[in-house]
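lol so apparently i was supposed to do this last week
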Amino acid sequence: MNDLYYKSTRSNKEKILSSQAIVNGIACDGGLYIPSSFPKIDKPFLQLKEMDYRQLAFYIIKKYLTDFDGEELKSCIDSAYDAKFDSPLIAPLIKVGEVFFLELYHGLTLAFKDMALSILPHILKVSVSKLNIGKDIVILTATSGDTGKAALEGFANVDGTKIIVFYPKEGVSQIQERQMTTQEGNNTYVIAIEGNFDDAQTGVKRIFNDKEFNRILNDNGYMFSSANSINIGRLIPQIVYYIYAYIKLLKLGEISSGEKINVVVPTGNFGNILSSYYAKKMGLPINKFICASNENNVLYDFINTGIYDKQRELKVTSSPSMDILISSNLERLLYDLCDNDVDMVNGLIGELNKSGRYEINSRMKNKLGDFYGEFTTDSETIETIREVFKDFNYLIDTHTAVGYDVYKKYIKAASDKTKTVIASTASAFKFPESIIGAIDSKFRVSDKFALIERMAEITNKTIPKGIKDIGRRKILHNTVCKQEQMKSVISEILGL
Ligand SMILES: *Cc1c(COP(=O)(O)O)cnc(C)c1O
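anyway here it is w/ pyridoxal-5'-phosphate bound
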């Protein structure tokens, strides 16, 4: 039907179909898989605007999973975007003042990671059976807080899989930690790392690329795959909601067909914003990609100077899911910026691994023109939450607040009137200890789980079912290890 295939950002040798790319997770050469070309949105937006989320997801994802038949994909979509989501719209678009918040947190774990991780396990399962792999898949995941829980929820009790999640002990919110350590399921393993997210992610990547360890795994009937956004199966479902936001704006009469919009994305590993970039490559009219960082502002520096420099202290902020210095998916953007020059990508990543820094050439810098990068401090974040709640009676979480504050800085700098969609990446209920102080002047530190109830009271909202009673759930996981011990922990779990 068409000749789309997947290849690595670091070489041109491998050419594989989507099912194989999703099962592999990461390319043999350590690079990331990308589609060989970007399929185009080939229906008028005025026609698309009548679609619901599932229909649009089918239309878009089908273009990428070319070796899936319609029935297979439809069943994945129906199992993913169902009543697990507490809004039938799946991703409601809410107008607040002059901007539109795209609420991506209505899934089970209250963060946007559910948008892709509700479907990835189903896609992976179909892929495994298509390829006759005959091995159990071990999903190895590093998390800055939200991916871990969303992946655990997605893969719990899925036959033929085990899921092992590593999270930074001091780097996630209390609710995030409790969500993970109370995870049920006969195939779920949660381990805290003494270190930060980058330590966990680097450790996981190293294990993926450890040929000898992979051989041992293989001999024991296992195979690794990834639920992190290095897996292209995470990015494809995320393209859908940007197009969904667009057709909703159209339906609301806020824009006319073909009119450009801006997107604001609170960014860490660069997966979410890259999906919006891919949506543009498919034909979605996006004017600016507004990349919002917290005080770990490597991407702000990169977008403004062309220099990526991870040599700095990682800060623990109130937006922990963005506490990242090595944004993995930037490699996919680099590939695009240098017109698919794998030698260039290899050179830059090589420098990053060797010296912790690289600089792109002026031609690549010029192609960054569609991006705007800014950052927000922790105190600005809390102030933003307070203001938005006071002015609009609308509660945003710390990550979304970073996005909103950066948007305000953008407007000040650019006085741009383009309609703007802000990716609202988590529910405020996930970060009560940071948020309560912004909205409740009588706030006193009390039981952290009681804070959730207080928040519900002030905002007049019901506590999302994903965290209701979380304080009373039994802790089922309590292993802590050092980065060097990750391999032996895995060996123990798998009985190698
Ligand atoms: C993961 C996460 C982000 C960062 O998304 P990336 O795709 O890693 O850039 C932002 N906000 C929240 C709430 C998240 O969970």
